[in-house]
Design brief:
By secondary structure, this protein is an all-alpha fold. The chain is 52% helix and 0% strand. It has two helices and no strands. It has helices spanning 32-46, 59-90. The longest helix is centred in the last third of the chain and has 32 residues, at 59-90. The chain is elongated and about 55 Å long. It starts with 31 loop residues before the first helix and ends with a helix.
């Protein structure tokens, strides 16, 4: 015959009062750091001073493209992850 009593709760599932915590999924957080980084990249594009001046034929625009690429690709990836987590948390 099998034992039908529930297993005791593990300590990580209990709060300080000894009651079990709910296992509800956490609400996903907006990627604030990547958002600020993306905004700062736009500010860098509008700022009149660059690491390499735009009058240098190819490299002047390459540093602008590199800054935008480095800032926006992770930002967009984190937005996709945020939306997937939000969708998963709702269902």
């Amino acid at each position: 015959m099998t034992n039908l009593t529930p297993a005791p709760l593990s300590p990580q599932n209990e709060d300080k009062t000894g009651e079990a915590q709910s296992q509800a999924p956490r609400k996903p957080h907006w990627p604030v750091a990547w958002t600020l980084f993306a905004i700062l990249s736009i500010v860098y594009l509008w700022f009149p001073f660059d690491f390499i001046p735009d009058v240098v034929p190819v490299f002047g625009q390459l540093d602008d493209a590199a800054i935008v690429g480095v800032a926006w690709v992770p930002f967009l990836i984190s937005i996709v992850k945020f939306l997937k987590a939000l969708k998963k948390a709702r269902f």
